[in-house]
Amino acid sequence: MVSGSRFLAGTPAAPRRTVVANRVLTGLTNVLFGARITDMETCYKVMRTDIARSLSLQANRFDIEPEITAKLLGRGHAIHELPVRFEPRSRAAGKKIGWRDGVQAVQVLVRHRLRGSRRPCRVARRFPRRT
To answer: Which is deepest, 23, 46, 73, 83, by most CB within 10 Å?
Structure first.
């Protein structure tokens, strides 16, 4: 899978609370699955269709991000990260994520780590070497 990372392009212009929450969730993901990713809640994810269809996703809110990541890492898939930029929205502009979604993300990560068989994670380079 190729995933965008808002942190590889520098610290995003998001509220501090949002950045800290993202770092905590990403750190928990790395600890639980032996990964080295920088932005689990990125929303920018690209993968082969057959892999995406095999995930049997159940989430229907913001918990989709940890579910995708946990299932991919739990199956031993590599995650390649590339820097992305974004403009964060305010609540007035329609931002809907809240602290309850963070609690749900932790529950999803722990549940999938405890439930699934963990294969060794292939840690991918952030940028491929040039030959």
So the answer is: 73
Nearest CA-CA partner of 126 in 34, 48, 36, 23:
36
Q: Who wins on pLDDT, 105 or 96? A: 105
* Whole-angstrom distance, CA of residue 45 vs CA of residue 51: 12
Express each pLDDT in 4-38 by its tens digit. 998 898 877 777 888 888 899 999 999 999 999 99
The Cα 97–Cα 94 span in angstroms is 9
CA of residue 25 relative to chain centroid, distance: 8
Residue whose entry in the numeric block shows the structure tokens 């390649």: 80
